[in-house]
Amino acid sequence: MPCLGGWILDGQSSAPVGGGGSSGGSTGVVVAVEEGTFPVLRLELGGNWTDFELKASTNNFTNLAYYIKSSGTNAEADDTNVWVYFTDDHSADVRQWHRSTRATAIGNQLVNPTNSEVEFVMVCPSHESAVAWQPWMSRTNKALVWSFVRYDGIGLEMNASGTKSHWNPVVPVEWRKERIAP
């Protein structure tokens, strides 16, 4: 997204050295900002929740633009190369980010599946999806919304009455030119 460069000195605008500015008919200095096209989402799990479903939409879930299930048990999940990172508080180095193996529940990848807690996961969607990413996957897309539901290896988190799944809104914490790759 371009912008004009300039300074305000003592209340008077002035052009940067080399021309430009808003006075005198000059065109200004164009500063280009590179936009990242890879969102990074931070999902809060915690407790017994080790996995999740994540969905995105550009029309408030009338239709889906994106869908993944970290446990890999649903063949309709449409990102063939999503990267999901988690930490394991029972691994040799508890700080280390582990990249989840595709189509394998995170709960099955933990050193101690009974006692390990996955407080957060970082989700790095790819551009390899069932729906072309270019028309919708952008930080400037004001209609883009994301929601996730937690999964414990047995079932989805449910609302208080147990009648519907309990979805949570989430927004990308950042957009990158390239995905995180520790």
Write up this protein.
With 182 residues, this protein is mainly beta. The chain has no helices and 13 strands. It has strands at 3-4, 7-9, 12-14, 30-31, 38-44, 51-57, 66-69, 83-86, 98-99, 120-124, 145-151, 167-170, 172-176. Strands 9-8-10-5-13 form a five-stranded antiparallel beta sheet, with no helix packed on it. A four-stranded antiparallel beta sheet has the order 7-6-11-12, with no helix packed on it. A two-stranded antiparallel sheet has the order 1-4. Strand 6 and strand 7 (66-69) form a beta hairpin. The two termini are 29 Å apart. The model is unreliable at 19-24 (pLDDT under 50).
Strand order of the largest sheet: 9-8-10-5-13
Rg is 22 Å
- The percent of residues in helical segments reads under 10%
Amount of beta strand: 25-35%
Mean pLDDT: 85
Low-confidence stretches: 19-24
Main beta sheet, described?
5 strands, antiparallel
Order of helices and strands: EEEEEEEEEEEEE
What's the total count of β strands?
13
Structural class: mainly beta
Termini gap: 29 Å
Q: What best-fitting shape do the alpha-carbon axes yield?
A: globular
Helices, by number, come to 0
